[in-house]
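task queued by scheduler; priority normal; single chain, no ligands, no partner chains; default sampling; output format set to structure tokens
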Amino acid sequence: MDSRKRRTARSRSFSREKEDFSNLDIPIRRSETRRERDVREYRGQETDKQEEGYRAARGGKRKRKNPLKGVFFLCLLLVGIFFLWRFLSPYIGKQYRTIAIFGLDSRDGNKEAGALSDVIMLASINKRSGEIKLTSVFRDTYSEVDGNGKYHKMNEAYFLGGHKQAIKALERNLDISIDDYVSFNWAAVAKGISALGGVDLDLSDAEFYYINAFITETVESTGIPSVHLEHAGMNHLDGIQAVAYGRLRLMDTDFNRTARQRKVLSLAMEKAKKAGPVKMISVATQVLPEISTSMNMADFMDLASQLGRLHLGETTGFPFARTTMKIKKMDVVIPATLESNVIELHQFLYGEEHYHPSATVKKISDHIAEVSGVTKPLENAEEAGTGGGTVRKKDKKQEEKSTKKEEKSSKSEKEEKKEERSTETEKKLSETEESSIEVKKEIEKETEKEEEKVTEENSLGLAGDIGKKVIESSEENAENP
């Protein structure tokens, strides 16, 4: 009781002191603050112990972060960057990208100097709209080919200095800037089209008349097997047959041949747009080893990513206004004039309405006009097409001669066979006659012997028989004692 009274008295005195010294910010009893701090520390230790017990109950392991989540978020980030780049890249840098395409007639696989560039094309890609415009530069176009004043057919530039000289010649004569190039041989085109599943083409009678010979020649030059076509009209062509179609030129002109080449390329592009990624990978693995190009894998991936929005627009041949003639014993195509054609080419490829050619183009144009006599611009030639053509008279005559020779040879072969058969039959008959004569002689001999025996028997009678037997028995005893 005394202790309780003392405690109550202390508390009362403490409360009075607090009221008296309420204006002072001095702790009266420090033991209380220390006690509160100790309580907080104790509670913190208790919570730590509880957490440790919880971890021990779960196996003593902390909860680790899942690394797959990080990979997933990284993939999402990359996909987002890809689609963002796909959307923004057409609007970064130049609006147009120009690619030079060279198709080579190279039997030994050579893709540089010494190879004949049968195909020369310019592809202008509008990165904003996705439109591709194709221009075939006629290989016989009279041009300045080496930068030193040498004039020849345009394809001579590739023959002399490979793709580098060919690109410089195109840039110099046409006032263009080429970003990349692709050189390929016929094997690359054949493998690519076959990997895409072939193309469907409608052949005229004249095209069908000549195509099988070109199929044979293409098979021999590439080593890729194929078969002859059986009829004109709609045909499904494999790679070799499509290449042969693109090489046809005997039934019409070289201008029509370039139109056939652009047609095959456009059909192959449509097939590529519909092909899935697996098929495109197969095409790339078969075609890339057969080509020479300045583009790297990133460039191809960029084009592949844009393939869905790319589409082929107009196609044409250059020069638009032209004539043909012989210069220095060469059959060449004369641009009429080069300057006016270059102005129209820039309008076609890049949409430039008021283009002014460079001094270099004007100089080359003046020289061609002086040599050819074509000094004024002409009207554009009619656009060459496909599906027509006529069989040449000399080819028909050669075919008639060959058929006659075949008929003669077949007749002579038949006559020779008849003679051989007749001689064989005569031999057999003579052999049979000789054998029959010998048989008759043998029969006559046998009959004579029989007649002699009969006469002897008749002369001796029964004694003759006996005497014969006696003589035979004596001979047997002499041999076998």
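post-processing summary
- The first helix runs from residue 2 to 20.
- The longest strand covers residues 116-126.
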